[in-house]
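Z., the sequence and structure:
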Amino acid sequence: MSELNLSFGLSFEDLYSRAGLEKLDGSFVESLKESSVELHNQFVSYRANVLDGVEIDEKDEANFLIEIAPFVEDFIAKLFGIEAEVSALQDSHTELAGIFRCKRTVVQRRGPKAIKGEEVGEIDGDALRAELEGYFGAPFSEKEYSDQTTKWIDYENSKDIEGFEKESLAACRYAGWALTSAAGRAYHKNDVLFQKPNKLDFEALVPVDTEVVDGVSVKRLADSHTLRERQGFSLTDEGFSIEHALDEANYCIYCHNQGKDSCSKGLMEKKPDENGNTPFKVSPTRVKQAGCPLEERISEMNQVKANGFTIGALGIITLDNPLCAATGHRICNDCMKSCVYQKQDPVNIPAVETRSLTDTLDLPYGFEIYSLLTRWNPFSLAKPLPRKESGYKVLVAGLGPAGYSLAHHLLNDGHLVVGVDGLKIEPLDSSLNGVGKNGERTSFLPIKDIKQEVYEDLDERVLAGFGGVAEYGITVRWNKNFLKVIRLLLERREHFAMFGGIRMGSTITYDQVFELGFDHLSLCLGAGKPTIVSMPNALARGVRTASDFLMALQLSGAGKKDSISNLTVRLPVVVIGGGLTGIDAATEALAYYTVQVEKFKKRHDILVA
C-alpha cells in the first residue's frame, strides 16, 4: 500500500464517488480537446447524439473507439503518474511489431514459394540458419530474422538495381523449411514467427497418436503435447506470453470493418427460416455459433492491443465485459467457436483478453486502473458514469458468477445492493476492502503492487467463500486470485454490503426480505442446486457427480500435501462429459491420486514406527 498522488487536482477518494468521477470525466474531455480538437468535437457530438437517441453507425463507432484509445491510455497514465511505465509497455509491443509484419508479408507468403519443388525433408535447416547468422552478424532470433529479412525484402522491392537477392532467398527458404518440415516445426515449436494455423478436423479436434499395447489399439496424446504435472492447487497455466497474445491479436482480421465480427455477434445463416428469422449457424459438433454472450467489442480490442495500447484495449473490453477477470483464458470460448476462421484454428480471443487485463494489473496501480474503468469508462458513449442514486434497495441471493455480475451492474445503475450467500465468507483486511470487523465502512488504501499486496500462493490459499462455483468448482485452470480482484471491485463500493452464512428460505425467508425494506430480490442460486445426471444408475456406489467431487476436494483441503484430510480415489476413473467441470474432474483425479498415495505412505510409516 502507498500514497497515491493523482493528477488533474483529483484525490484517491474521488475515484470512488460519483461527484469525483464527474470531475474526472470533465478533465478527460478537456485533455482530449488539448490533444485533438477534431477528436474532441467528434467525441462530444457522439455523446450528445446517443443521449438524443440518434443511432451511430456501428463501423463509425468502432473505428472512433480505436482512434481515441491512445488518448485514453495517455490520460490514465498521466492521472496515475505512471507515464514511464506505460511508455515502456507500449515500447515492448512496438519492438515485437516487426515480427508480425514479417510473418504476414514474408514468412507466410514467400516461405512456401521459395522451396516449391524441393523435397522439404532434404533441406538442411541448420546450415541455412548458420548462413543467415553470417549475414546477420549476430545469433539467430525471431527479432533478428524479422528485422534483417524485412530490410532485405524492402530493399529488393525498391527501384535499386543491386539488392540482397542472395540473403532474402536464404531467409525465405529458411521460412519455408521452418513452416513445412517436421524438423523445422519442432525446432520453432515455442516461437510465434514460424507458426501457421492448423486446419480444423472436427472429427479429430485433439491430435492423438495410436499405438498397439498388448494387442490392443490405444490412443494417447501426441508427442508434441506438453504435459503439466503438478501437486496441490498451484496454478499450472499462467496464460499466454505477450508475444503469443500479440500473435493472436495480429492473426485477427479485424472484421468489424466488414460488419462480420461474428466472434462478437455470432455466425448467421444466409437465409431466414420459415418464421422470417435469421438463425445462428450450428457447428459440425452441433454447437450454436451465437458468439460472445456479452457482444464484447473483440475485433476492436484485438486491433488496439496489436497497436500497443494495453489500457486502451482493457477499456474497450470493460465497455461490455466489466468483470473480465472472471472470463478469458481457460474459462470461456463461445467467441472462438464463432470466429470467422472456421476451417483453421480460430483466434484465441480469451487469451488476448486476459493478457490485456494482466498487463494492466502488472502496472503500478494497475488494480486501481482496472477498478476505475469498471465505474468510469470513456469508451461508453451512452453511460460513462454510474447513474445517480435511485433509492432502490436490492437483495442479491447467491454470490457466484451470476450474483456478483448482477451486483456490479445494479451498483452502476445507482441502486443499493446487499449480497448474501449460504457459504461462510472469510473477512479481508479493512485496508484492502474498506469494511471493518462489524461491517462498518472504513477508509481503504490504494493498491500499488497487486502481486505483493493482494495475490496469494494458490497452493497455500485459504478458501474465502466468495464466488460460489468459481470458488469451489473451478480448480487450477484459472488464477483464483482474480476472485479477490472481483470481490474488491464490489466491496469497495459505498452502496454494497455482503454477508455469508445466510441461506434463502431458512436463515431468511422471502417475506422477511421485503419486511426488511428491500424493493427487489434477485435469486442467483442456479449452481447451488445439486445436479443429478439423468441416466440409469447415476447414484450407484462408486458414481459421483464431478461438481461434488471437486467441491469436496477443495472444501476439505484434501489436495494439499500437508492436510490431514483425505478422499478415496480408486483408478481407473471414467469421466462422462467433456465440459469444463468434466475436464477439471479428470485433471484433479489424476493429480490428487498421487497426493493420496503419498499421504497413505506417510501415515503407514508413522504407524510402523
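The two ends are 49 Å apart (CA to CA). The longest strand covers residues 208-213.

Let me know what you think.
H.
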